[in-house]
Amino acid sequence: MTAILLGIPACCSSLPPSLRSPLSSTHPPLHPARKMVMTDLLKPEDIKKALDAFAGETFDPKKFFEMIGMKAMSAENVKKVFQVLDVDGSGFIEEEELKFVLKGFSKDGRDLTDAETKAFLTAADKDGDGKIGIDEFEALVHE
Question: What's the whole-model pTM score?
Answer without folding.
Answer: 0.74
